[in-house]
Amino acid sequence: SQQGEEDPQALSIQEGENATMNCSYKTSINNLQWYRQNSGRGLVHLILIRSNEREKHSGRLRVTLDTSKKSSSLLITASRAADTASYFCATDGTSGSRLTFGEGTQLTVNP
Amino acid sequence: KAGVTQTPRYLIKTRGQQVTLSCSPISGHRSVSWYQQTPGQGLQFLFEYFSETQRNKGNFPGRFSGRQFSNSRSEMNVSTLELGDSALYLCASSAGTGWGNTIYFGEGSWLTVV
Questions:
Q1: Bridge-partner residues for A82, per DSSP?
Q2: Which residues, 6+ apart, have CB-to-CB distance to B41 below 8 Å?
Q3: Measured between alpha carbons, how far apart are the two ends of chain B, in Å?
Q4: Contact in structure between A71 and A6 (CB atoms under 8 Å)
Q5: In sequence order, what are the residues at sequence separation of 6 or more whose Cβ sits closer than 8 angstroms to the Cβ of residue B34?
Q6: Is residue A44 within 8 angstroms of chain B, CB to CB?
Q7: How confident is the model at residue A98, as a pLDDT?
Q8: Pairing between strand A105-110 and B64-68?
Q9: Chain A: residue nearest B106 by CA?
Q10: How many whole angstroms separate alpha carbon B47 and alpha carbon B42?
Q11: Is residue B48 classed exposed, middle or buried when 0-12, 13-18 and 19+ CB atoms within 10 A define those classes?
Q12: Tens digits of per-residue pLDDT, B45-94?
């Protein structure tokens, strides 16, 4: 079963706009990781944020974590058509190497 | 540095057959995990191996098994295939086991059972 939910399930924006995806989870975590998946391909690691961190940046990506609300958000700034993909959050819990994934957000960036 | 390599990328099997999928982790990584991805169930953890020992196992029937070799390469096997086993099987590796390790995924093996 999935640990949590991503919101929205699908998001369609224009190139240059910002995209925000949210992830909620149910149990206590140590780390949360965000991944991107292009259609039919594997998962590409984007960012790992630890439970004692509140915000992390990587290029055009900004991830926030609110452990009190059991939620995280991924912001992609100045989106590009190449950002079109599914985005997943994954949490660890009782075992660090056992990730529990959300259902993903399908992002479409229109040129 | 090469990423996680999975073979084969695509395969078609008949119900009742068995299949073996292979995974080579990133050089130096000793933990290998396997996940199944289907449209209905999403991404689900199968098992994890570290130093040739199974460390964790997901909620899958015994038809799903795996192993890890001394060079950290891993294989997973599915016996008596069912139509519902059609899925993308993803292998992931990390330097260690436990919390705080970035987990990297391969491109996956697409299995179709007919």
A1: none
A2: none
A3: 37
A4: no
A5: B23, B45, B46, B47, B48, B66, B74, B76, B89, B90, B91, B92
A6: yes
A7: 86
A8: unpaired
A9: A42
A10: 16
A11: buried
A12: 999 999 999 998 999 999 999 999 999 999 999 999 999 999 999 999 99
B67 close to A70: Cβ distance less than 8 angstroms:
no
Name the residue facing B45 among A33, A43, A98 (closest C-beta): A98
| Closest Cβ opposite residue B99 in set A41, A96, A100 | A96
Q: What is the DSSP string of A89-107?
A: EEE--SSTT--EE---EEE
Q: Is A59 on the interface with B (CB under 8 A)?
A: no
Identify which of B87, B85, B103, B28 has the alpha carbon closest to the alpha carbon of residue A92: B103
Q: What pLDDT, in 10s, does the model give residues B5-16? A: 999 999 999 999
- CA torsion B103→A102→A86→B24, rounded to 10°? 30
